[in-house]
Amino acid sequence: MNQRERLTKLLLKQSLISLLKEKNISQISVKELCTSAGINRSTFYLHYANAYELLEHVEQEIINNTSAYLDKIEAGDNGTTYILAFLDYIKKDEELFTVMLLTSNENVLFPKRLLSEILKNIDSQLQLNVPDRLKRYTYSYLVNGSLAIIQEWIQEGFIISSNELAELIFSLADHSLLAFDTLEEK
Predict the structure, then answer these.
(1) CATH number at residue 39
(2) Residue 127, pLDDT score
């Protein structure tokens, strides 16, 4: 990809994020995106078929970039380090994550997809001790609970520290995993 292409895609991404603050994806036209980005429609169509495809591209880019960032983190045997790195990453790009995790852009699946990917990375780092038959339920619980906590944190303007929130999420997850050990003993 050449520099002009990268710039075009960056401008379209920024335009989309800006427009998503005000309206749902179904209400955003290609014309609006192009006007906001300062490019013509034919340039848009060289890269994307419609606004939904652009949104999918942005979502996948966020997942890939977040995973790549977290892959560099050495969690050791403590997941708090990993969760803290993720929270700091969110805080660093506050505008993007506020729009993508809080704004109703008719794609409620994206936040769960992102958190599921993060949880997979944590599991590969820490080897969570969850029986295979219960893994799907455990992950669903951890993803939904963690997502709710993170969304609340963003909505409140990050009023508690990343470190404190990471410890809370890890502690809640750890306690819920202990419940599975108890179930296995029965």
Answers:
(1) 1.10.357.10
(2) 59
Residue ranges in 93-161 assigned as alpha helix (H): 94-102, 109-126, 132-155
The answer to whether 81 and 73 are in contact (CB under 8 A) is yes
3-state secondary structure of 129: coil
For residue 37 the two structure tokens come to: 């980005």
Residue-wise pLDDT tens digits, 10-57: 999 999 999 999 998 999 999 999 999 999 999 999 999 999 999 999
CA–CA gap between residue 48 and residue 27 (Å, rounded) = 17
**Cα–Cα dist 34/44, whole Å:** 7
List the domain range (segments joined by +) for residue 46: 3-185
How many residues can be counted in the chain? 186
**Which helix (DSSP H) or strand (DSSP E) does residue 80 occupy?**
helix 79-92
Q: Which of 181, 58, 64, 56 is nearest to 121 (CA)?
A: 64
Angle at which helix 94-102 crosses helix 109-126, to 10 degrees, equals: 110
